[in-house]
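Deliverable D2.4 — example input (structure tokens):
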């Protein structure tokens, strides 16, 4: 008996010791009504699978805190009487940083009982915006860091989604959605439009080489690929709707990261202990010279690349005046290429970009079911580029400054569990100062094609109504209005979405709508010499380009955490700017006859444009997804599509971005390792196979006669470059220590070094057509510590 008691005592001591060695963290968060955003008081939240069950209830502000949760991955379940249950699978808990969960619950028609939705784990990819029904999904910061070779860039993560591809240059994070030009993408932060938030971007572009957005700053966000709700305007192809998270208002936390793409530091915490206000900031600096040191050449000879960015958010809740937040994003990038005649580089090239955005948000709840959200932002983007021939003569000069002051406000009213109305307006005051000149050898001087400054306004208003007809049928109806004051051109855009729940694990969806987008000011203000030396602006009265979207979808949850989704779509593009005809000094007539802005991804366009062009995109997208479970996840997407346009000559052609098919596999495996199995080791990989961009074929005979690259404009985009494929690999080790988490990762883009084609052109020295290729193997090693 004494031996048994002794053995029991030793066993208890051992268990206590083992338990005391377990690393734990506190999970915090907030639970709100999905339609009114009001806090749910007394909602229950638990960590699934813990014994005894770990959980709590929300306080008067809807906030909750669950202490002493063992590090690792956990499923979180939230319930509230009269609301549908929500499950959040695979939440990663580390020892260095407290995870904060924003959970939205949908009110049930049955008021006095908790309603369990069998397929509730679909919420892992469901859009945060409750008024979205099709072609929309949310993505988390953890996803962008987990997927192979995304380099913590949300745009590169989105390139793995169905219907989304790159723009033909692996250095850029360009997004082509369903065959549309990347220019049709709208970027938003905190509910308001922002300029392109990327380093090394061009005028009119939506992409760049490296994102200014840091994973340390972002919260879960939405991505739309078509038929988006009425609150989204000035977009024709897709929307990135990003949100910044709040800093920890209970304790100070820090993060430091070092890698080939730069050095970064983040800090967050409360302004004072016991208060609700918090701050969050991140700074990064980099020079790509680090790649030269390891023998990886991604820049040209004599090229110097530097970039830096800063972002922050201050959150200031009050008891009676609502919640204020002040945030900002800024950065600069330079790319300097010095001439080197020994390698055939006769030009000095310099590009310089600056971006600054400041925003002030205010949200106030008038009552439990009504809130007003207002945002005021100011932004400035400077783009400079110039070329000179060995500093003897200027060949090209470009300096564009575009500034915007925007005010946005919305009223959200939830009438009951069936009806919610959201209405708002956006006023944008746009300032511009544009200058572009190029050297013409025949004239022996620089010729100005854009030279203007001034301002204009862009006005938007919208209203959208969600009607839940039954527990199975939800309809979203809306109207968006846009007006460009520069030429008083406007667009009235009806929107409609519907989702029908066939079974708890099966649903049909539908989305239709008209969408429009204004061009960059340089398009409207491009100047043309009328032959007498007087510059005219023939494109100032261009109408807004428009796109009618039609989408039908089907989704079903399957066994073993798999989900299947299919969407078929048709898009009719009209009022598309095309070159209108032949003018003195303009390009050759075959080029004009085949030109359309649907094939342009950036830059300025000179020439007389008209809105007589059209286009159409149609296709089928399939997605099979397994949420991360038992350390394994997989996403398989495929797309078959056509993208066509009709220019001045009336002949329907392939667009430049008509790749015809896309196929992606993203997968990974995660293991618990180390003492106490509290660390994580993971291997992630991605396979991309797709058609390539179309190109204008080279006229070999004419090129040999002219001694330079000459294109055949009678066969514009008839042919495509060789098919594109690439394998990416990511290896990640997460080590949890008391009060700190260390993450070591290596991501390799294009593991096999596949030489994917980017262009074909005539080489006069070789007398034949040769190909340019995209970026070869590209590694990035990084180390991050959170504490």
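Example output (designed residues):
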């Amino acid at each position: 008996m004494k031996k048994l008691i002794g053995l029991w005592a030793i066993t208890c001591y051992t268990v206590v010791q083992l338990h005391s060695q377990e690393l734990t963290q506190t999970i915090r968060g907030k639970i709100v009504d999905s339609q009114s955003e009001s806090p749910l008081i007394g909602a229950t939240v638990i960590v699934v699978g813990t014994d005894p069950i770990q959980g709590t209830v929300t306080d008067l502000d809807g906030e909750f805190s669950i202490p002493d949760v063992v590090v690792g991955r956990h499923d979180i379940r939230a319930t509230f009487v009269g609301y549908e249950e929500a499950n959040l699978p695979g939440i990663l808990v580390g020892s260095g940083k407290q995870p904060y969960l924003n959970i939205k619950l949908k009110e049930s028609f049955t008021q006095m009982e908790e309603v369990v939705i069998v397929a509730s784990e679909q919420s892992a990819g469901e859009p945060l915006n409750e008024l979205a029904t099709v072609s929309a999904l949310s993505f988390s910061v953890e996803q962008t860091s987990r997927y192979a070779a995304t380099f913590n860039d949300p745009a590169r993560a989105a390139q793995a989604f169905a219907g989304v591809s790159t723009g033909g240059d692996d250095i850029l994070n360009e997004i082509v959605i369903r065959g549309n030009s990347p220019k049709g993408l709208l970027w938003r932060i905190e509910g308001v439009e922002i300029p392109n938030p990327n380093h090394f971007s061009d005028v009119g572009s939506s992409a760049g080489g490296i994102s200014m957005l840091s994973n340390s700053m972002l919260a879960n966000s939405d991505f739309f690929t078509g038929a988006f709700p009425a609150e989204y305007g000035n977009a024709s192809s897709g929307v990135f709707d990003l949100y910044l998270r709040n800093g920890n208002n209970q304790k100070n936390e820090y993060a430091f990261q070092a890698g080939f793409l730069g050095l970064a530091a983040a800090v967050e915490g409360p302004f004072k202990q016991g208060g609700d206000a918090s701050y969050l900031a991140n700074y990064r600096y980099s020079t790509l010279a680090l790649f030269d040191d390891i023998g990886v050449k991604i820049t040209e000879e004599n090229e110097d690349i530097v970039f830096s960015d800063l972002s922050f958010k201050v959150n200031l809740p009050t008891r009676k005046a609502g919640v204020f937040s002040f945030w900002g994003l800024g950065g600069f990038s330079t790319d300097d290429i010095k001439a080197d005649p020994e390698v055939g580089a006769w030009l000095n090239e310099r590009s310089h970009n600056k971006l600054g955005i400041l925003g002030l948000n205010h949200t106030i709840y008038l009552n439990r079911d009504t809130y007003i959200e207002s945002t005021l932002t100011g932004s400035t983007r400077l783009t400079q580029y110039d070329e000179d021939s060995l500093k003897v003569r200027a060949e090209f000069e470009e300096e564009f400054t575009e500034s915007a002051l925007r005010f946005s406000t919305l009223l959200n009213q939830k009438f009951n569990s069936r009806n919610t109305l959201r209405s708002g307006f956006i006023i944008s005051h746009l300032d511009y100062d544009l200058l572009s000149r190029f050297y013409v050898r025949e004239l022996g001087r620089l010729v100005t094609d854009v030279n203007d400054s001034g301002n204009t306004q862009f006005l938007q208003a919208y209203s959208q109504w969600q009607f839940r007809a039954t527990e199975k049928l939800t309809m979203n109806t809306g109207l968006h209005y846009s007006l460009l004051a520069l030429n008083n051109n406007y667009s009235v855009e009806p929107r409609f979405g519907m989702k029908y729940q066939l079974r708890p694990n099966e649903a049909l969806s539908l989305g239709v709508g008209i969408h429009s987008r204004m061009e960059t000011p340089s398009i409207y203000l491009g100047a043309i010499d009328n032959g007498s030396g007087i510059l005219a602006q023939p494109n100032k009265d261009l109408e807004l380009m428009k796109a009618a979207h039609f989408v039908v979808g089907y989704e079903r949850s399957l066994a073993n955490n798999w989900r299947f989704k299919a969407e078929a779509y048709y898009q009719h593009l009209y009022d598309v700017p095309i070159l209108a005809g032949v003018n003195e000094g303009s390009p050759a007539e075959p080029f004009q006859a085949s030109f359309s802005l649907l094939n342009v991804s950036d830059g300025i366009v000179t020439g007389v444009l008209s809105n007589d062009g059209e286009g159409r995109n149609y296709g089928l997208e399939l997605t099979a997804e397994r949420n991360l479970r038992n350390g394994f996840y997989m996403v398989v997407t495929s797309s078959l599509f056509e993208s066509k346009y009709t220019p001045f000559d009336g002949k329907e052609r392939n667009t430049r971005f008509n790749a015809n098919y896309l196929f992606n596999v993203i997968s990974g495996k995660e293991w618990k390792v180390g003492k106490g199995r509290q660390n994580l080791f993971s291997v992630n990989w991605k396979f991309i196979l797709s058609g390539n961009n179309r190109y204008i074929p080279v006229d070999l005979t004419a090129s040999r006669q002219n001694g330079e690259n000459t294109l055949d404009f009678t066969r514009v985009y008839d042919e495509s470059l060789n098919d594109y494929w690439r394998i990416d690999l990511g290896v990640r080790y997460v080590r949890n220590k008391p009060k700190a988490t260390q993450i070591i990762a290596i991501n390799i883009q294009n593991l096999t070094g596949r030489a994917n084609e980017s262009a074909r052109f005539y080489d006069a020295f070789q007398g034949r057509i040769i190909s340019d290729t995209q970026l070869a193997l590209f590694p990035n090693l990084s180390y991050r510590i959170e504490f």
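The first helix runs from residue 2 to 21.
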